[in-house]
Amino acid sequence: MKLLDGDALAKIHRLELIARGVVEGFISGKHKSPYKGFSVEFAEHREYVPGDDIRDLDWRVYGRSDRYYIKQYVEETNLRALILLDASGSMSYTGKMAAKHDGKILSKFEYARFLAASLAHLMIHQQDAVGLATFDTEIRRYIPSRSRANHLQVILETLWQTEPGKETSLAKIFHDLAERAHRRGLIVIISDMFDDIDEILKALHHFRYKKHEVLLMHVMAEEEITFPFNRWSIFENLERTNHRIPLDPRALRNEYLNQVRRFIRRLEMGCGQMDIDYVQLSTRRDFDIALAHYLARRMARAR
What we know:
This protein is an alpha/beta fold.
């Protein structure tokens, strides 16, 4: 694991405190589940990937092959989850109408990062196994699901080190991850979902075909939903360098809003047909309140 300086450690600790506050403030006592422990039955080897616990390395295999392999065991947990965090350029958008945290207006990515940290903290707290995948045009970091307490630190470190990057390639990434996630579990997608809707729905179906439960947290800025601009402006493509277009937003507001509504409606309907939990989130609403309300509804449905 990369060594961190004091400032970086303080940031990670701050993120952990925020996540713990969300869990304890809104969820503690509502999500109780018995700890089932781990089996000591050996299952198989697989190649080491960054984020794996080095205590699971098989040094005998390393001595024979000069390659790092992890010993996998049959694990018994209440839930196995993988959080997919969109780190494409469009997630860096920061609208003036967005919620603030510590006096700072949150970008879509910062909002999504807090959601991911809070969910990871909650699942580790419940002894559930959780992993993380960050991506833009490719998978930038893949952390397999674990339920150990120290695994949360790996996830939080990755969340703090990740910044929005390149263009979006949702469908390709989802297909790839559907093949990687061999054991059936919960896939949590946190993204603005800006990509071809037909290809997105096919990729979501791939997760369901693999028998995964899917939760889609669709994060958009309030400006992207309502398009409140009323004077000539330069609109910038956040996923392409030097791609700016001067526009009169009043001339295209109606068409823009119609297309956005159609996109959201089709995404929501497609998720409903596949029994995928769809949650639309605006960065205007505090992320902790939005998350707590969703979890309360989810619990009510499960009863």
